[in-house]
């Protein structure tokens, strides 16, 4: 699966360990008075949310709602795109009102995607709380946004690319970088809660 110029950070088994640790942290910190809802940011945030929800349900015995969020029309760089984007749609099969919502995405970079996702969530209702869970935090924030639960922190150059591949969107699970070799700042076997 690895292409020329890619540096593998994590293989499928490491991704599985990260997801188990993240699910454990989300289960531990859930609000008992509010239903837990995971909302994946399209595209790879959706399978992440589904897998996290399945593990949280296994740990807690309680159902966890899963939705998919299309944030393209909320992006602040939409006008810079040379072509109209393909929209995959938002699918939220539950009420956001009073819920403990966890936005789930694959990579946290500048924070602009999360800002767009927050705007989209607020248009759908008024949750009791909104938290953020990401598989990879690569730094270089442009907005004051920080994840509550992180699978792994990777030190990257601003021009580097981080690619997360996840089943069933991709043939296998892995995290790779393209560019200079990245350094892992946090072990891939435990989720990092917010400081």
Quick rundown:
With 195 residues, the protein is of the alpha/beta class. Helix content is 24%, strand content 28%.
Describe the structure.
The protein is an alpha/beta fold and 195 residues long. The protein has a domain of 126 residues: Rossmann fold (3-Layer(aba) Sandwich). 24% of the residues lie in helices and 28% in strands. Strands 2, 3, 4, 5, 6, 9 and 10 form a 7-stranded mixed β-sheet that branches. A hairpin with an 8-residue loop joins strand 7 and strand 8. The radius of gyration is 16 Å and the shape is globular. The termini are far apart.
What would the keywords be for this entry?
3 helices, 10 strands, seven-stranded mixed sheet, single chain, alpha/beta, Rossmann fold
State the secondary-structure class.
alpha/beta
Order of helices and strands: EHEHEEHEEEEEE
* Helix count, DSSP H or I runs of 4 or more residues: 3
Globally, the shape reads globular
Question: Which band does the percent of strand residues land in?
Answer: 25-35%
Identify low-pLDDT runs: none
Give the beta-strand count: 10
Straight-line distance between termini? 35 Å
Which CATH architecture of the domain at 11-77 and 100-158 is right?
A: 3-Layer(aba) Sandwich
Mean pLDDT, nearest integer?
88
CATH topology annotation of the domain at 11-77 and 100-158: Rossmann fold
Q: Nearest-angstrom radius of gyration?
A: 16 Å
Helix content: 10-25%
- CATH top level of the domain at 11-77 and 100-158 is Alpha Beta
| Main sheet makeup | 7 strands, mixed
């Amino acid at each position: 699966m690895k292409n020329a110029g890619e540096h593998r950070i994590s293989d499928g088994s490491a991704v599985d360990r990260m997801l188990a640790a993240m699910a454990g942290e989300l289960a531990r910190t859930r609000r008992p008075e509010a239903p837990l809802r995971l909302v994946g940011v399209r595209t790879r945030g959706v399978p992440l949310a589904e897998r996290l929800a399945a593990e949280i349900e296994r740990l807690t015995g309680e159902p966890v709602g899963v939705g998919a969020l299309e944030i393209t029309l909320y992006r602040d760089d939409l006008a810079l795109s040379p072509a109209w984007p393909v929209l995959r749609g938002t699918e939220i099969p539950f009420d956001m009102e009073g819920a403990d919502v966890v936005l789930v995405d694959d990579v946290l970079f500048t924070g602009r995607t999360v800002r767009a996702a927050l705007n989209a969530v607020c248009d759908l209702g008024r949750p009791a709380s909104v938290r953020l869970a990401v598989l990879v935090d690569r730094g270089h924030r442009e907005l004051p946004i920080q994840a509550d639960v992180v699978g792994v922190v990777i030190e990257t150059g601003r021009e580097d690319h981080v690619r997360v591949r996840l089943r069933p969107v991709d043939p296998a699970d892995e995290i790779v970088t393209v560019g200079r070799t990245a350094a892992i700042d946090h072990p891939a076997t435990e989720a990092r809660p917010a400081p």
